[in-house]
Every structure is written in structure tokens, then in C-alpha cells.
Design goal:
Layout (H helix, E strand, L loop, with lengths): L2 H15 L6 H20 L2 H14 L4 H17 L3 H7 L2 H12 L4 E7 L5 E4 L12 H4 L9 E8 L6 E10 L6 E10 L4
Antiparallel strand pairs: 1-2, 1-5, 3-4, 4-5
Length: 193
């Protein structure tokens, strides 16, 4: 499936899930439906799985010190504008696909990012505030829990996007083994639920 066809099919599914003016108690059900539908489908796309497997191969030997140094480099780049590491992630094919998917969502998705088995960014629709997500619930409560795990974050204003959103995360699973290989997080615009 081409990236454009994939994005268009996502848009069709997302439009069906969007409901204007949902009450607070309906948010939970809508977010779970989104996680178990469109988000799970995107997490299973061949491009997503292949990118995570390749990234896991590159980062398998990283120790805590290397991860901390990369995270510090990412955060410094956010402050200085020298974007070597950030640009390497933002310009890859997976990031292009995630950006296209976000645009096609008609404002439902405020950001999308994919993490590897260490919690490091593999691809993203816009720069996150840090490179390592492995200390956060979006990764710990999905990747470490296993296939089918879903984590719904609190509603908050995201510092990197400025949008009032809820993070919806799930594990990315290798179809060959059935084991988690990473995680994916979608910022969902609270105003669209």
C-alpha cells in the first residue's frame, strides 16, 4: 500500500470516529475505540514495524549513559537550534508518513511519534521535547505491558505542540513473533472528541 493510499484510508476511519461535543464520560470510550482501531492499524503498518526493527538493531547496545547523552543532546538542540539529531529523526521516511497521517486527520491528531524498544524516538510528526521516552508512562505502560496494551494519558496542554490533548499510546508488535518491539503515541485533540 502506498503512503498516500494508507493516509487516505486513515483519514476515512478517523472521520468516522470524530464526534463533535462529546461529554467527558464519552471521551474514554472514544479514545479506547481510536486506540483499538485506527491507532492499532497504524502501529501495524509494515513501514512502522520495519522502521522500529531497524532502529532497535542500531540501539540494542546503547547503555544508560549513551541514552542520557542523546537525550541531553536533543534537549540542547531544542534550545540552540542546532538540529543534527532532531533533523535526522524528522526527515526520515517514517516521520514523513506520520506527518502525512497527522495532516490527514483533519485536526484530530496533534502529534504522532514512534518509540523503539529502549524508548528512543524513531519517527515523529513534529519534534518532541525529549528524545528518550523510556521513563514515561506512554512507553512503560505499553511496551513493557505487551501486545494490546493501551495507555490513556491525562488531558493537558502539550508544551511541544501547544494543543490541549490526550496522549493515546499502544505497543507496536512484530507480526513475526507477536512480541512488542516499540510503542506509538498519538496526541488527540480534546476539542475534537
Amino acid at each position: 500500500m502506498t503512503r498516500r493510499v494508507a493516509v487516505l484510508s486513515i483519514l476515512t476511519a478517523v472521520i468516522g470516529l470524530c464526534g463533535a461535543g462529546a461529554r467527558a464520560e464519552e471521551h474514554h470510550a472514544a479514545l479506547l475505540a481510536l486506540a483499538k482501531g485506527v491507532i492499532r492499524d497504524i502501529a501495524a503498518y509494515e513501514m512502522v514495524v520495519e522502521a522500529v526493527i531497524a532502529h532497535n538493531t542500531r540501539t540494542a547496545g546503547y547503555d544508560a549513559a549513551r541514552i542520557a547523552a542523546l537525550d541531553a543532546q536533543w534537549q540542547a538542540e531544542m534550545m540552540t537550534g542546532n538540529l543534527d539529531l532532531i533533523d535526522a529523526v524528522l526527515t526520515n521516511d517514517l516521520s514523513a508518513f506520520l506527518s502525512d497521517t497527522q495532516r490527514a486527520s483533519n485536526g484530530l491528531f496533534t502529534e504522532i511519534f514512534v518509540m523503539d524498544a529502549r524508548g528512543l524516538n524513531v519517527g515523529q510528526s513534529a519534534a518532541t521535547s525529549d528524545y528518550w521516552q523510556g521513563d514515561e508512562a506512554k512507553w512503560r505502560k505499553t511496551f513493557l505491558v505487551g501486545p494490546g496494551a493501551v495507555h490513556l494519558g491525562p488531558m493537558r496542554r502539550d508544551p511541544s505542540t501547544g494543543a490541549l490533548q490526550i496522549h493515546v499510546s499502544t505497543a507496536i508488535v512484530d507480526p513475526a513473533t507477536g512480541r512488542p518491539i516499540g510503542a506509538i503515541t498519538f496526541g488527540v485533540a480534546a476539542s475534537r472528541l
